[in-house]
Amino acid sequence: MPQIFPRSADMWLRLALLILFGGLVGLLIVVMVLDRSDYISRKGWVVRQPVPFSHEHHAGALKIDCRYCHDSVETSAVAGLPPTETCMSCHSQIWTGAEMLAPVRQSLAEDKPLRWNRVAELPDYVYFQHDVHVNAGVGCETCHGQVDTMPLMYRGEAFTMSWCLDCHQDPAPRLRPREAITAMGWSTELDRREVGQQLVKAHHIDTRHLTHCYTCHR
Ligand code: HEC
Ligand code: HEC
Ligand code: HEC
Ligand code: HEC
Ligand code: HEC
C-alpha cells in the first residue's frame, strides 16, 4: 500500500480529536455549572426598582409587619404588593419633600400604580399558593430569606424544583407556629422536628400527595 499521508498525520488527527473532545467536555461542565449557579437562578441578585425601597429599613428597623404591605398573603395565592396609598399613610407626613420619593408622589397624583420589578417569580407552568404554606406554618423567611436585612430586595432562595421538593418530602422540621410566620431569625429551644410534627398533626397536613407532579404542575 502506498502511503498517501505522512506518518505524522496520524498523530495530528489524534491530537485534533483530543482537543475537540476536551472542548466538548469543558463546554458540558460550563453548562452544568451555570445551570446550578446563582447567576441562572438569580439567587442573591439585587433588582433595580423605580424607588429604592428598603426592607431593611421598613421591616427591620421600623419593624412594620410584612402583612401591613403584603396583606393577602394569608388569604390568597398571591401575597400582593402594596398600593401607593399604603406608602402615603406615612410618607404624606414624613420625608414629604424627598427626591427619592418623587415617583411615589407622582404615582398618587396621577393615580397610576408604581411598577415594581419582580424579584421572586416562578415560571407560568408552576402552580403556587401563599395561603396554604403560610397557614401550614412555613415562615416567609424560609422561602425569602432574612428580608429584614435587605436594603434592596433579592432572592433568598433559588426556587428550583429540587428546592420545593426537599421540603415537600419532609416539611416537619421546617415548620413553625403561626404566630412566628413573619418573624425573622426565628428559632426555638425545643426540638424543631418535634415542634413541626405537632404542627403537621394540628393543621391536618397530608404529606402523601406533596411530591406528586400534579401538585405543582396542573
Ligand atoms: C409605617 C410608616 C411607613 C410606611 C407605610 C412606609 N414608609 Fe418609607 N419610611 C418610613 C420612615 C420612618 C422612613 C425613614 C426616615 C428616616 O429614618 O430617616 C422611611 C424611609 C423611606 C425611604 C428613604 C430611604 C430609606 O429607606 O431610608 C424611601 C425611599 C421610602 N421610605 C419608601 C417607601 C415606600 C415606597 C413605601 C410604600 C411601599 C413606604 N416607604 C412605606 C416610614 C414608612
Ligand atoms: C412598608 C411596606 C412593606 C413591608 C412592611 C414589607 N414589604 Fe415586602 N415589598 C414591599 C414593596 C414596595 C415591594 C416591591 C419592591 C421591592 O421588591 O423591594 C416588596 C417586595 C417584596 C418581595 C419581592 C416580591 C417580588 O416578587 O418582586 C418579597 C419576597 C417581600 N417583599 C417580602 C416581604 C417580607 C417577608 C416582609 C416582612 C419581613 C416584607 N416584605 C415587608 C413593601 C413592603
Ligand atoms: C413556601 C415558600 C414561600 C413562603 C412561605 C412565602 N413565599 Fe412569598 N413567594 C414564594 C414564591 C415561590 C413566589 C413566586 C410566586 C410566583 O411567581 O407565582 C413568592 C412571591 C412573593 C411575592 C411577590 C408576588 C406576590 O405573590 O404578590 C411577595 C410580595 C411575597 N412572596 C411575600 C411573602 C410574604 C410576606 C410571606 C410570609 C407571610 C411569604 N411570601 C411566604 C414563596 C414563598
Ligand atoms: C419549607 C417547606 C416548603 C417549601 C420550601 C415549599 N412548600 Fe409547598 N407546601 C408545603 C407544605 C407543608 C404544604 C402542605 C400544606 C397543607 O396541606 O396544609 C405545601 C403545599 C403546597 C401546595 C398545595 C398542595 C395542595 O394541597 O393542593 C402547592 C401547590 C405547593 N406546596 C407548591 C410549592 C412550590 C411550587 C414550591 C417551590 C417554589 C413549594 N411548594 C415550596 C411546604 C413547602
Ligand atoms: C413541589 C413542587 C413541584 C413538584 C411536586 C414537581 N415540580 Fe416540576 N417544577 C417545579 C418548579 C418550581 C419548577 C421550575 C424550576 C425552575 O424554574 O428552575 C419545575 C420545573 C419542571 C420542569 C421544567 C424543566 C426543569 O427542570 O426546569 C419539568 C419538565 C418538571 N418540573 C416536571 C416535573 C415532574 C415530571 C414532576 C413529578 C415527578 C414534577 N415536576 C413535580 C416544582 C415542582
UniProtKB/TrEMBL annotation:
Taxonomy, superkingdom: Bacteria
Q: What is this protein called?
A: Cytochrome c family protein
Q: Which segments cross the bilayer?
A: 12-34
Gene3D superfamilies in the cross-refs: Cytochrome C3
Statement: the UniProt record of this protein carries the keyword Membrane: yes
Q: Which InterPro entries match?
A: Multihaem_cyt_sf
Presence of the UniProt keyword Manganese in the record: no
Keywords, in A-Z order = Membrane, Transmembrane, Transmembrane helix
